[in-house]
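Changelog note: in this version the structure field was regenerated for every chain. One regenerated record is shown below for reference.
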Amino acid sequence: MQSAVSNSLLLIVINSATAFASIALSEQSPELNWLIILTMTGVGAASVLAGQSISSRLDQHKLKRGFSILIVVVAIWLLANLFY
């Protein structure tokens, strides 16, 4: 499981860096709002640290089950918004 998470995060970083670089280097690139970018980066880093400390105290089976339920609920919500 650790290997799958690491590989997934690596792919997300590569994808994000490529998208950011292509937008930043484009001749028609929009003005980047660095306050928003840095705020989102800070909140993301704080969330990762908080999640790591909390996850060590939670039952992993319940954590995986809860995440699965969350994914299904979000998928249903997205499908409902797509058709209605």
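Spot check on this record: Residues 1-32 form one domain. The mean pLDDT is 89.
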